[in-house]
Amino acid sequence: MTALKDKVVLITGASKGIGRATALELAARGAKVIAIARSRIDLDKLSNEALERNHAITPMHCDVTNFDALNEVVQRILKTHKKLDILVNNAGAIEPISHLAESNPSLWVNAADVNYKAVYFGIRSVLPHMLKVGNGIIINVSSGAASSPREGWSHYCSSKAAALMLTKMTHLEYASRGIRAIGLSPGTVATDMQLAIRASGINPISQLSPNSHSPVERPAAIIAWLCTNDAKEFDGGDVSLNDEKIRQRAGVT
User: 35-57 pLDDT, tens per residue?
Assistant: First the structure.
């Protein structure tokens, strides 16, 4: 529980779902969490909930698909805290779910921007500082869709595959300089994303029972474990929440 004490952590897409649960989990472990998202209202709710638990989370509004805006947030963090230890690239989008021939090009690209381009923007924003100090952790929330095509998810599968390659590239180029890059494939999790998937009625994932999805606290706990040196052997790839050995290592039942 003490491994993350006073670590400065930036979490994207932190206003709900896995990002929100991760912010609360890391704050409970003593990290200085900066939570960013587009929804100011949801961020304020998150910050207030943290205060009720006697923890502190700093909310910052940001559109992660805008590099200048995200980089400005990183610079503000560095000015305030003098360091940034961990980046959790969590922001993701599954909508609009549709077959390729009926897909809306602008909406398709918007989802790809969130799932892929924003991951690059996050990595690019934090790397100069991390390389300067010789250490840093980058965790990209991935998906089984990165390696397994799903009907109606061309935007999601292809962008998650691209993001997985960014994890591998970051590891390849900078592991020797103290940078840890690792992905987490959380499986199906009880978030708003699953509501959209179920409503689409496309592919077998939409037919899963709501009771079959993991609570958001599980991936949050595994992300916390990935931030420790105990998970270092998995750097450069994805770990899966569905892997029983990973859950055991992370202490997640």
Answer: 999 999 999 999 999 999 999 99
d(CA 141, CA 145): 12
Angstrom distance (rounded) from CA 106 to CA 109: 5
What is the Cα Rg of the chain in Å?
17
With a CB cutoff of 8 Å and minimum separation 6, the contacts of 12 are: 19, 36, 37, 62, 64, 70, 87, 88, 89, 90, 91, 118, 122
Cα(121)–Cα(190) distance, integer angstroms: 27
Query: What does the pLDDT look like over 130-173, one tens digit per residue?
Result: 999 999 999 999 999 999 999 999 999 999 999 999 999 999 99
The model's pTM is 0.95
156 as an active site residue: the answer is yes
* Phi, psi at 80, each rounded to 5°: -80, -45
Catalytic-role residue among 16, 117, 156, 174: 156
* Beta bridge partner(s), residue 182: 139
Catalytic residue among 160, 168, 174, 232: 160
